[in-house]
Amino acid sequence: MKRLLLLCALFIQTALFAQQDSFMLVLSAGEQLTDFAVDNLGNIFLVFESGQLKKISPKGDSIAVFNDVRRFGKIYSIDVSNPLKVLLFYKDFGTIVVLDRMLNNRNIMDMRKQNIQQAKAIAQSYDNGVWVYDELDGKLKRLDDNGTITSETADFRVLFDAPPSPVNIVDANQLVYLYDPEKGVIIMDYFGTLRNKVAILGWSDVQVIGNRILGRKGQFLESYTAGSMDLREQDMKGLLNGVKKVQVSLDYLYCLKDGQLLVYSLNR
């Protein structure tokens, strides 16, 4: 795993920050898509306008489909950081649907039963649970696999003069990264202790790979090494025009554009 993270960090520093013509389109998938996610095995999860979720292989072959699309409304976000456990976040209903690797329904978490009335963002946690930012309480909370609150931070309105409202949560490197486009990155340990704040503003599609935080800002891909002054950016020179979402992996750049997923590899 350490070697994979090192290689992935090296890819960010070299492949992503190479010339735009170094990328070669190798796959296009889906139509009328609203979202997608890629797990660390390269499997791709496609969210359609209908609400259907489809899992395909790195080569584009169909693996599984989740069709129970009308029960909880519109999927707000999807977390596949654990390939064996897929989280679907239905923000409007305060609900998380947990699927297995074949997209079978394993569990439904109604966060309102835990008095979480305004869940802003969620993510997989290190202990097979779920991180939830409760905007009404101003706290980051951890739920177990049954949806019960096991821990929570102090009120962010007490911790910070200008409390963040994170839209992304990432659990990586035994730390929790919370991102607010207007406040930047907040890095905390698992006990809720603040480790660092980084004023990187206006990003979307935030990821953490190895020791680097990656995001998109308009036509630029930007990469920051945590705990340093190393901020890099690459003008993608039109490649990201009209792109709704971007995700980076070890060998590929994934772009959602015009309802279709475009997958680019580095032409090495």
Describe the structure.
This protein is mainly beta. The chain has one domain: TolB, C-terminal domain (Neuraminidase). Helix content is 6%, strand content 50%. The chain contains two helices and 24 strands. It has helices at 2-14, 156-159, and strands at residues 23-29, 33-38, 44-48, 53-56, 62-66, 77-82, 85-90, 95-99, 105-110, 119-124, 130-134, 139-143, 149-152, 168-172, 175-180, 184-188, 194-198, 204-209, 212-217, 220-225, 231-235, 243-248, 252-257, 260-266. The strands form six sheets. A four-stranded antiparallel sheet has the order 1-24-23-22, with no helix packed on it. It has a four-stranded antiparallel sheet with strand order 2-3-4-5, with no helix packed on it. The protein has a four-stranded antiparallel sheet with strand order 6-7-8-9, with no helix packed on it. The longest helix has 13 residues, at 2-14. The two termini are 24 Å apart.
Tell me the domain tally.
1
Q: How many β-strand stretches?
A: 24
Average pLDDT, all residues: 90
Order of helices and strands: HEEEEEEEEEEEEEHEEEEEEEEEEE
Identify the strand order in the major beta sheet. 1-24-23-22
Distance between the first and last residues' Cα = 24 Å
- The number of helical elements comes to 2
- The CATH superfamily is TolB, C-terminal domain
